[in-house]
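hey so u asked for the seq, here:
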Amino acid sequence: MKKGIYIHIHIFEKGDYHLKKNDKLLLILMTILPWFSVPFIGGKTLKRFFPGSIFMSLYLIAEGRFAEKKKWWWFPYSIKPNVLAELPLIFGPFFVGALWILKYTYGKFNLYLLVNILIDSFFTYFGLKWLKKIGYVSLARLTRFQLSIVFLIKTFVLYGFQIVYEKCCHLSKNWSL
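ran it, structure tokens below
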């Protein structure tokens, strides 16, 4: 573990850091802006892939709780006590992003995998750097490579859920997007 990150973790206790007005605005925008693209997804697509996005959101919340205990990453503040600080990411870009990725790549696994690797790598190596710079989050006991593996696992979980969901609900032949 890097010395600076270890000190960072022990300087702040969860909830000690109070959100500034600009931080609140950023969190609100991070959550809401992706939803402006949802009307362009289409009703059939939304109905088809919404359960997968809900499932992944619940998975991410559970993962966030686990990661918080293991100190994989660090959010220096919480939105409210006992509420994960990553909720704006989960219910903003991750939720809506899953809808869009599934819309254009579901049924084409190699393309799905490639798109996810590219987007996750961009987030891991560039987006995370910016989020750390603005003080939103930083990795603690997880390296960027390890975070990439965590994202890769989620890639398979989402696709697997969608396959099972469509087979269980006999939906695959009813969808033509």
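Confidence is low (pLDDT under 50) at residues 1-16. The radius of gyration is 17 Å.
lmk if thats what u needed
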